[in-house]
Design brief:
alpha+beta; 3 domains; four-stranded antiparallel sheet; Immunoglobulin-like; about 190 residues
Length: about 190
């Protein structure tokens, strides 16, 4: 793929020439690429999964840009040549990540802090934390609060957990399109 910059001969071109080159316009630039040929084989299982994910991402992006507030959020993050639709589609395609759970301050007492580091290519909309004891019983569950100017979320324990050895802490990060990713640690 090539970009044509300020060439009077190709400015404004779009379409296919001699079944070899395709010209298109994007953000005021002329993009030239080789003609894409249709695939001849059956897609693999992995390719089918990716195509399905793209289809869902496109569906989300179309709905997101119909909402003026959501469209404004995505438009504010768009870089050169991107549209709000492009950013929304990428957000829907890529799930958030929980990188770590810092449980060093957790001792099973009400008020103990858990710090969760969660990231996303656009924005983490929320983090839900659950604590199960060693036998698998739910001790507590709730929402973490994002810490200002960081990617860290703080959860404060609300229940006593008398035996923390073997307890499992799970954090689930969710983004605007509803993608979620769990991460767990065992104490």
């Amino acid at each position: 793929m090539a970009k044509v910059k300020d060439n009077v001969m190709t400015r404004g071109f779009s379409g296919t020439v001699a079944r070899l080159l395709t010209f298109r316009q994007k953000a005021g630039a002329t993009i030239v690429s080789k003609l894409r040929r249709p695939s001849t084989g059956e897609p693999s299982e992995k390719a089918t999964a990716v195509m399905a994910k793209f289809a869902l991402s496109i569906k989300y992006a179309k709905a997101a840009i119909k909402n003026p507030a959501t469209k404004a959020l995505y438009k504010a993050m768009a870089k050169d040549g991107q549209t709000a639709f492009n950013v929304a589609m990428a957000d829907a395609f890529i799930a958030p990540t929980v990188e770590s759970i810092d449980a060093t301050g957790y001792h099973g007492i009400v008020g103990d802090p858990l710090t969760i580091r969660a990231t996303d290519n656009f924005k983490v909309a929320g983090v839900t934390v659950s604590i199960h004891n060693a036998t698998g019983d739910l001790v507590e569950q709730g929402k973490a609060i994002v810490q200002e100017d960081t990617v860290d979320w703080l959860y404060t324990a609300t229940q006593v957990n008398p035996a923390i050895a073997g307890s499992k802490i799970t954090a689930v990060a969710t983004d605007l399109p509803g993608n979620s990713t769990p991460f767990e640690v065992i104490l």
